Amino acid sequence: MTQSRTEIASLGEFGLIRRLSENFTPTLPDSVLGIGDDTAVIDLGTEYGLLSTDLLLEGVHFDLAFCPLKHVGYKAIAVNVSDIAAMNGIPGQVTVGLALSNRFSVEAVEELYAGMRAACDDFKVDLVGGDLSASRSGLLISVSVFGKVAKEKVTYRKTAKPNDLLCVTGDLGGAYMGLQVLEREKQVYMANPGMQPELEGNEYIIQRQLKPEARMDVIYELRDAGVVPTAMIDVSDGLASELLHLCSQSGVGALVFEENIPIDEQVYLIGTELNLSPITAAMNGGEDYELLFTIKQADYDRVKNSPNISVIGYMTDKPAEIQLATKGGNRLPITAQGWNHFNQ
Amino acid sequence: MTQSRTEIASLGEFGLIRRLSENFTPTLPDSVLGIGDDTAVIDLGTEYGLLSTDLLLEGVHFDLAFCPLKHVGYKAIAVNVSDIAAMNGIPGQVTVGLALSNRFSVEAVEELYAGMRAACDDFKVDLVGGDLSASRSGLLISVSVFGKVAKEKVTYRKTAKPNDLLCVTGDLGGAYMGLQVLEREKQVYMANPGMQPELEGNEYIIQRQLKPEARMDVIYELRDAGVVPTAMIDVSDGLASELLHLCSQSGVGALVFEENIPIDEQVYLIGTELNLSPITAAMNGGEDYELLFTIKQADYDRVKNSPNISVIGYMTDKPAEIQLATKGGNRLPITAQGWNHFNQ
């Protein structure tokens, strides 16, 4: 019998997920939303439950050569909380699946969990369960998170409307540039273990890479301001990739103004030093874990003075046109695809 | 600076979990129960939510030399559903985190998901989300499950009372003996790839290993009979280990009658052939995914005629005495610890 073999890289992560998810349309009456958003949505009666899972693998998502275990633990919780934030929800409980080889000591595991403990405190979530296993190689962390949201406040990716304003929290590109600095210093260190790493002046972007924050502060800020976003997604793969998700799922286009994209000064400085484009880092770098969301124009006054929110463009009724208006006055199509671990 | 190094194997899986969980006492008002039972329990208002995570790793939990991917997928869902059953709950939604190396093709992943699809149908759960990542080696599956239970029906490990009857579903030891047969045939095959595996006569125990079922049927049966167990746990590590959990968490002892432990005839036959004790397989083998539970004596008449339930003993007020009354008339302390992957 001849069996055909299709490489996963030929479909990519998103292509494979799309292909698999076709067979998993939810059937239970309380399954409000299945695959295709930042979390699943479950009807709890008076409100909605939110459920999501993220994996972090050594050698794929983090490098223990420069990423302390405590930071890995913190990040594992934060990126899951970010998924709940992206649904406009409040996180509650997390479970942690941990697989590790005998290279790791009890003390190492305790460092990892100290980071999780800190993140649980910062984001006010309880670690309520999990699983622990030996692995043949390396460290793998699987975190699942459960949260809740009032039914009228849940925010999907698929509900942006033409003329809605496009907003992003914080600043972008820092996590990617921080990673480049860490990779550079690792190379230097491997060539000459006596050298001290040159991290000075890059503390902010390194922090962005090693210890990302979920923007629950902005979720609470929007609540206080009485704003329910019309659509939302978290920025894990870069602005371009996330904007394409919002547009394709909502059936709208978008125009983004380059000059409005928030980028920290350190990103510009290190970009010059490493000959890397700050705007490319923001568009395609990934791992910033900011929130990308749309609001009604009528809500503009409620966000315009927030130091945490930048209005970077607006949605249009032309789904085929997702464009960047550059500082130079050009309009470029936004097409980037973000990370694809299977192609690396 | 001198740092001490403690090997994980010196604490064991349960010891490490105990040590880590000390720092994670739940603090949120809706976190009803954290680490320490088959699932966490979350207050949803009118009912409870149940949340749990299990990992399955190639080379640790399954061997693709004899375990088809479809069965691995089925098992990944079933063992999680079993955790919900063990809380007397009804499973609803699952998320799947999947890490795999480029050794796996799209077709292989589809086989895996076909098994998950079958399990979702059998147990009436929706696969609603997940994550997909490359791994440096092997296949890892992380499944999280969410379920619900009426507040008055939730069943913990810690609530067994002296004089409660101890019950177990189905039969025990089959999954362990099935694994021994598969391991034997793998050795034969590796020595002589032309040989056909000798599996005839062992179909039942091989099925028990490769395609375990969560006993949701018994959960529905108990509901119909009007029985709420006083305590419950699923049998993933062997009867001995699970009974010790029930007793220590409930502060009770137990007396188990060897002659009442349900063991399939195939377990006896292959036990003779391989010189392995059937009762040891039942007590310490693991992976049967049956339910071990206690009921009030007053409920005996409601379960005594069930072909799915065996009453194997009773709980006592002597926490220090957890004993097996052997067929030969002796009383042996039950002390086995189940699997510890970190010692293998």
TrEMBL record, chains A, B:
Pathway: Cofactor biosynthesis; thiamine diphosphate biosynthesis; thiamine diphosphate from thiamine phosphate: step 1/1
Catalytic function, reaction form: thiamine phosphate + ATP = thiamine diphosphate + ADP
Residues involved in Mg(2+) 4 binding: 38, 52, 83
Residues holding Mg(2+) 2: 54, 83
Keyword Ribosomal protein: no
Domain PurM-like C-terminal: 163-319
Gene Ontology molecular function: any one: magnesium ion binding
UniProt-annotated binding residues for substrate: 61, 287, 339
Keywords recorded for this protein, A-Z: ATP-binding, Kinase, Magnesium, Metal-binding, Nucleotide-binding, Thiamine biosynthesis, Transferase
InterPro entries, sorted: PurM-like_C_dom, PurM-like_C_sf, PurM-like_N, PurM-like_N_sf, ThiL-like
Binding site residues for Mg(2+) 1: 53-54, 131
Keyword Zinc: no
Miscellaneous comment: Reaction mechanism of ThiL seems to utilize a direct, inline transfer of the gamma-phosphate of ATP to TMP rather than a phosphorylated enzyme intermediate.
Family of the protein in this entry: Belongs to the thiamine-monophosphate kinase family.
Function: Catalyzes the ATP-dependent phosphorylation of thiamine-monophosphate (TMP) to form thiamine-pyrophosphate (TPP), the active form of vitamin B1.
Name of the molecule in the record: Thiamine-monophosphate kinase
Organism (species): Arundinibacter roseus
